[in-house]
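Posting here for the record, re: iron/sulfur cluster.
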Amino acid sequence: MMNNIIKSLNKLKKEKNAVILAHIYQLPEIHDIADFIGDSLELSRKATQIDIKTIIFCGVHFMAETAFILNPNKKVLIPDINAGCPMADMVTAEKLKKFKTKFKNPYVISYVNSSAEVKAESDICCTSSNAVNVVKSIALNKNLKDIDIIFVPDRNLGNYVQKVSGIKMNIWDGFCPTHNNFILPEYVIKAKKEHPNAEILMHPECHPAAISYADHIMSTGTMCKYIKKSSENEFIIGTETGILYKLEKDNPTKKFYPVTNLAECPNMKKITLAKVLDTLINLKNIVSVPNNIQQKAYQPLLKMIKISA
Ligand code: 13P
Ligand code: SF4
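Prediction output follows.
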């Protein structure tokens, strides 16, 4: 059955000159058919490197929108147009503009988990894998005394970056419901009790009280690379549970324990194989942004993809 679906998908992809990009949090059935799986930064970079007309983006809306901003001449399609990100919705361009007026010389870093309009109001973007380096790059190029850094929308990532870099920022009060509300310190303690030899890896979107138990704090893509190289055999994973399928597939001899199975992003899970097929057949659910917004949002994204993880 799966083989037949993959065969028809491959035929359709060829006919339509399309490629399937998928975020690591996607369902296993999407991992199995994707041409490329990655974290937010890897997917943004990949989107600029492929010479194919149509991108089927299996992830949430801001990710597909980012792919479009970076490739306005390509067709970017999302299999479920309602796959949004509640954290991205916690800041709007209007609210950000108003906040900027409070500062003499605002310099905005927007986490890529934000709308195109918010990116257009930003100086540079970042993802969870390069956020620390993005902030450090600002310190190299600007006198920090002359600017007021604003970080939107994730307070947990912002606070983590501020702590690691030692650079003071004005941090927005947004958060990811999946990471902040479900990956609780008591679950981390319980998992460590049950698996005392396991290393604890956590995503910086988690609440600081939970993160304080982590051995390492890293983005999803960095977790995948770190585990492949590590000589450790057991890991407690503090991020969205979709990553476990990839970790188990890539490291069959290693053991993985989620901090909690409750950490599921309902929006990521809206993308199904049936919807991917439908999107590919009908070339529907086009993601685009107005020309003026695309041009303004392009620069901060371009600056971001030049900065490594
Ligand atoms: P990554 O940057 O690790 O891919 O995370 C994206 C995301 O949405 C986390 O919730
Ligand atoms: Fe947004 Fe959180 Fe889902 Fe990531 S896991 S897409 S931040 S709601």
